[in-house]
Design goal:
By secondary structure, the protein is an alpha/beta fold. It has 13 helices and 19 strands. It binds ligand PMT. Ligand PMT binds next to helix 9, helix 11 and strand 16.
Length: 404
């Protein structure tokens, strides 16, 4: 049975082009057995009519023009009626009103009057989402335990591409089920994720590194957090913002990374090694900047293999590796699965002809092999979407292993 059955949800709709998706969201929530009431901001009327929601929900739609026959206390009554509030789409303007605690319309008044879980699914142009003002509001709202569903990345209504699309209704429904009405499929589990590259110093100004941006690892950490896990992200140097509600430990080299993972692993249930760890480091780290010479020979020594070490020393931890391969993807991935004693390995093509997937890109293509013989091929998609799918798969395999 869906955990949304009999749940009472207030669906807030703001004025954005994604408002039409809210009609689908309403239907999906109803299909799961939830009871939904809709509140629209005045700007939302420009994109979709209250009548649409009224017809779909079978209930009056609350707007700023709504005339109560009773006491004019709708914001209080609705706040007491609902189990949760979901605002989709949530515009930049609405996030700003929410962050400032304004009560200038029915929806913002209701949010102030409510003491129930509140989630927002932002939808806006990518520049509006990236603006420092919006990001500061997002940060503040997250600190106040407001849950963010997305935004997604991809082509936008304005024709631009980037972060700011509203998540698809079916994804929002599963996030509502997993994040607002359950402790999540990985609730109570602790997961350590590594991400990004490592930097191996040659001298005070130079290092050996690789093209990993950290995007895949951060997306995995975020998805694990959304699934209810307690997440520790051990990150090599990246330019990314820390995912909300995730403990981030910044490291530089492979040796630092191993040390920090070992510090955290004892109470951990699952280890997901997404980092592109440098296999080698310079045998000596010159104390001063090396001077230019005709030729320079660097002696490299092997770095510890973090994943293999953890899998060897902690056989109770469910270990997932990643494999970035330019060729023979299946063969090399299967070899790593066996040699490193993993439960799953997630392979991705990183050759130059694998157009804009793998390293640095927002998208990826994954091929996954399980120690149980299972095999999955997932088409090109945004790293956040793939990460959510991967976390569901890991959860399924983890629970199967721990109930048998
Ligand atoms: O960061 P992005 O730009 O988003 O790019 C994502 C990614 C391509 C880096 C990511 O999807 C990925 O494939 N990560 C693993 C890359 C890699 O270096 O794979 P590998 O084949 O060298 O290592 C296999 C596994 O062993 C990995 O889980 C790795 O984290 C781990 N490993 C490797 C070497 C080492 N010394 N210690 C390790 O723990």
């Amino acid at each position: 049975m869906s955990n949304l059955k009999y749940k009472t949800i207030l669906l807030g709709v703001c004025g954005g082009i994604a408002a039409y998706k809210s009609a689908y969201l309403l239907r999906e929530l109803q299909k799961q057995g939830a009871e939904v009431r809709v509140i629209m901001t005045r700007a939302a009327h420009d994109f979709i009519t209250p009548l649409t929601f009224q017809a779909l929900s079978g209930h009056v739609v609350y707007t700023d023009d709504y005339q109560s026959e009773q006491r004019g206390m709708e914001h209080i009554d609705l706040a007491r009626w609902a189990n949760a509030i979901v605002i989709a789409p949530a515009t930049a303007n609405f996030l700003a009103r929410l962050a400032q605690g304004r009560a200038e319309d029915l929806l913002s008044s209701l949010c102030l009057a409510a003491n129930i879980p509140l989630a927002v699914a932002p939808a806006m142009n990518r520049e509006m989402w990236a603006q420092a003002a919006t990001q500061a509001n997002v940060e503040l709202l997250r600190q106040r335990d407001i849950t963010f569903f997305g935004p997604d990345s991809g082509e936008q209504a304005c024709g631009e591409t980037g972060d700011g699309r509203m998540l698809e209704p079916d994804v929002i429904v599963s996030l509502i089920a997993n994040k607002l009405f359950s402790h999540g499929e990985l609730a109570g589990k602790t997961i350590v994720v590594t991400a990004g590259p490592t930097h191996e110093a040659i001298d005070p100004v130079r290092f050996i590194a690789n093209r990993s941006s950290g995007k895949m690892g951060y997306a995995v950490a975020q998805a694990a957090q959304e699934a209810g896990a307690n997440v520790i992200l051990v990150s090599g140097p990246t330019a990314l913002q820390a995912p909300a509600k995730v403990k981030v430990i910044n490291v530089v080299s492979a040796e630092n990374m191993l040390q920090q993972v070992q510090n955290e692993i004892s109470h951990c249930d699952i280890f997901i090694s997404v980092a592109a760890v440098s296999d080698y480091r310079a045998a000596t780290n010159a104390p001063q900047k090396l001077k230019k010479q005709e030729t320079l020979t660097l002696e490299l020594v092997k770095n510890p293999d973090i994943l293999a070490t953890i899998a060897e020393q902690h056989s109770d931890v469910f270990c997932v590796g990643f494999a970035a391969e330019t060729n023979n993807v299946k063969e090399y991935a299967l070899t790593k699965l066996q040699q490193k004693k993993l439960q799953l390995i997630v392979a991705n093509q990183v050759s130059a002809d694998a157009a804009s997937v793998g390293f640095e890109s927002d998208d990826n293509v994954l091929e996954i092999f399980g120690a149980d013989g299972s095999h999955y091929e997932w088409e090109r998609a945004n790293k956040s979407q793939l990460a959510r799918r991967l976390i569901s798969l890991i959860s399924e395999k983890y629970h199967a292993q721990h109930t048998s």
